[in-house]
Amino acid sequence: MPKLWLLPYFHTQPLGSTTFPSPTLAFCHSPMPKPWTPPPAPRRTATHQLPLVAEAESADLFGLGVLGVAWRGAAASSAVVEESRAGVARLPVAARLSHQQHVAQVGDVAGGQAQRLDLGQLPIGRLGGDEGAQRREGGVDAVGAVALSRVGRVPLPGLAVQPPGFLAAPPLAGFDAEAVGVQVEGLLVGARALAAVLLVLRQHADLGVQDIRNTVGNIPMEWYQDFPHIGYDLEGKRIYKPIRNKDELDKFLEKMENPDYWRTVQDKMTGADIKLTDEQVDLVHRLQKGQFGDVHFNPYEPAIDFFTHEVMIHPVTNRPADKRSFIPSLIEKEKVSKLVHAIKMGWIKPRKPKEDTPTYYDLWAHEDPNSILGRHKMHVPAPKMKLPGHEESYNPPPEYLLSEEEKLAWEQQEPAERRLNFVPQQYRCLRAVPGYPRFIHERFERCLDLYLCPRQRKMRVNVDPEDLIPKLPKPRDLQPFPTTQALVYRGHSSLVRCLSVSPSGQWLASGSDDGTVRFWEVCTARCMKTLPVGGVVKSIAWNPNPTICLVAVCVEQSVLLVNPCLGDKLLYGATDQVLESYVPPEEERVQPVQWVTATSEEHSRGIRLTVQHSKALKQVTWHGKGDYFATVVADNSNMQVLIHQTSKRWSQNPFRKSKGLVQCVLFHPIRPYFFVATQRYVRVYNLLKQELTKKLMANCKWVSSMAIHPAGDNVICGSYDSKLAWFDLDLSTRPYQLLRHHRKALRSVAFHKHYPLFASGSDDGTVIVCHGMVYNDLLQNPLLVPVKVLKGHTLTMDLGVLDVVFHPTQPWVFSSGADGTVRLYT
Amino acid sequence: MAQLTARFRTENPRYAVEDVPFSVPAASETADLSHLINKLLAARGADHKYVEFDFLIQGQFLRVPLVTHMEMENISTEEVVEIEYVEKYMAPQPEECIFHDDWISSVQATEEWILTGCYDQTARIWSLEGKSIMTIAGHTEVVKDVAWVKQDSLSCLLISASMDQTILLWEWNVEKNKVKALHCCRGHAGSVDSVAVDCTRTKFCSGSWDKMLKIWSAVPTDEEDEMEEAANRPRKKQKTEQLGLTRTPLATLSGHTEAISSVLWSDAEEICSASWDHTIKLWDAETGGLKSTLTGNKVFNSVSYSPLCRRLASGSTDRHIRLWDPRSKDGSLVLLSLTSHTGWVTSVKWSPTHEHQLISGSLDNIVKLWDTRRCRQQTVLLQIPSHSL
Question: Where are the WD repeats (chain B) (predicted)?
């Protein structure tokens, strides 16, 4: 008959010891009995004092062992479980954990209910439940055997991991009636718990005499309250409760009389009274005090770790290595091959090498330099001290030592003048160097240096003076311009005041103080005609219209319109015809001047018309179309400026009021503007609107002459205080530039018609030719470069050049001088 | 004193010396070498008159001591130097002075006569001795240029251009010493500054201040050309007193933007004109087309062409005489610039016989004869300080 013997192994071990022996699960195997029959009951009872449960090294097995023990009082245990569940809630956590485990094990096996177990995945509960019926009918041995055998076959992953709290509850190891009880009850506090303990104890106490076959199970006992029995025995007969017929009085009497009444408790299962022994009472007392049930148990024994930090020579377990530890893992192989594939396909990029160059950032990059921190940038370092040189050595090279003369000279020098403020001296060794007497003094001077060091940074602008000079192109690059005197037109016997060139550039007319007007061939300096006019010629102007051959000559009080009869015969013939075709208007108009037709004698000389003014004339100038001309009268009245129309022989006075002494007038070459230069201002009038358009301040004392750029936006003014003012009419009413190149008064200024040139003639006998480039771009200012000083005229009566005029097509300039000559510069 | 070995050579057989190397002092100048040659020549023949020579080394005139010249020209003094010598041009002395009443604008000489144009509105014919033979009056303005057209023993054809915008073609009967205005060439609208007769003597061209270049026929005819005169033009007074028959131009070449100062026939079919617009233009006389333009940067006063060296020489208002290659295309370079005048160069003329020589007159009153064979210092052969004002 197969049997499972649980050997009384642990019995010899002292209870409470925490050192477990090496696992010696000592049970005898024999083939599993089929059909299994429970062992005889008497045998069970006979083993009362015997340990029934084999000790296992693991707490799980141990727990099962407890289960087996608990089996014997299954009914009571269920009560315990019930009770304890209520009480657990009030327990400390650690205690509750261990308690729960025990209770679960106990309750589960005992009641056959599926309780939650903390034994890993071990389906102990179901095990217990399945075989609950067997257990009820069979003995505890059978149950335990089954349980153990099952346990042995099931891998227990939780085996090695033991909660420390569990280890701290070793007293259950021993199979002792008290110990079991204590272990179960030890955690319970309170009267009800005590009652439960007592139940167990009573059961235990009655183990020998009482029929434990009452197997009502884990049912509420009040179900048997109204019955005379509790449960049934194996034969199916009722197990009767002890007869209880005591009334209150009997109870009282018993209470009074029975000295052991206080230690008598009633067993609910049987209804019998149990008298507690002294040990039991003592146990109860200790439990009530919260002490361990075992008198010999010392809870404060030093703990010894199962695994120590020391390296041990033997393995903790001698379990052979798993097969998987030496067989390559298939899963890993698959994973690796997947990774390799991914790397091959480029799905996984190799990790970028980490840049080990440290990254810095400019903490002050965005700092406002004007902020208070900015001044740190203007940090002025302390003046550096001169580093010691060879002279300072205690043993300087001999060339640094002063000779006698040098020493004498040093002494005679002022202290501030000395190159060295000490005398280099030689010592035998450093030890022999005496204390430096001027140390304090020099420290003080150094402190003074630091203190008086200028902390203000002087913002010195480093400007090369060359840069301040405007970058003007070299005159060589601005050619052509007149450079040398080419021709001298001699013939006048007195100073030549005025010049005019025919529009074709073939003829030159000059008027002189000798009372003649001379006409010259430009290219040969041949005087082609001389026209005596009987007076000083103040101004002469060739008609700018190339189809009209007419020269206006200012002689004293009249303007002579002269046909020089030069050039194309058809032209000057046509001019005569135009002049002759004048038909006087029917009604005589009141005019400020008189238009007089020349006499035949005058006509033969070339004079065609005479415009007689009331006062002496200063200047005559033509309008660009060649029909109108303006004259300036040397007068201070409002009749200073007159505008005449040749074809209609009609004159008018455009100004009602005198604005000052008019120096010269000019017509704008393109637009209907009229420039009137007084001593200090140049007024620009719009002839169409008859209003003042602009007033240019010449910034000089006495304007002498004026010329307009052929484009019409720039005006130059020469003045008697030797200045030449260039006005940009679009820019300002003040001069754009004021050129002071002449040393004496300017007499005349002129613009070239095509070339960017202008010239000025002065009393110092020179003509200065300047490059005056005017750009079409409005944003670009004119470029004025003086290019040439032309000399040639000799000073006569403190007068030099009186008039300058440009050749209309060539870069040539004519100048007339007080020496009676006209000169051509090319 | 260092010596050089030189070998003398000349193209004139009259002055040839034997072709042997001579040792000459290195510092010798033109005069020393000339003495040497003269001595050699005198030793050869007794009837030798002293002749001044000029010396050329590799086509360049010797103007400094021999060794200096060779150093400058990087000629080795170790080897035998070949020196060419020519008879020196001596400055001519004025033999005769022909006095005019007024400025002379132009002069043209033949073997027998001298024709001058004058500012007193006449042209004159002078004998070579300076005798006034004929005064040709007819122009109403200054005569600017004159030219011979044809010379026969009996009659001569000549033209005169004037500031009165006409060119008169005259026939001068030498025997009777009478001039007759054959034709009055009208068409210019400005003073006619220059005329030139072509080599066939049948055509002439004229350049005028009106920027036009006109080609006329120089053949005298009896018909009068029709004046294409507009109806509204004023009736001309001159018509009645006009000399000769009116002639109109064969062609008018327009292209210059300024006055034409000088014209010439460089070829039978090519006209060259210099203008104030800083250009020299070459025209095809047949088609009237512009062939090429030479652009300078100054006004051209005068231009001359040498068929010997086929160069144009131009005198301009900037003291320089420039030589041009007329066959090069537009924008051609100045080949050579001759500078020593101090005033405008008003006229240049190539030598008709010598391919390297040209003569120039300037407003600085000096006439210079140039040799275009290059020399760094001086190309001027002689200066004629002739005129004085």
Answer: 136-171, 185-217, 253-293, 302-325, 338-380
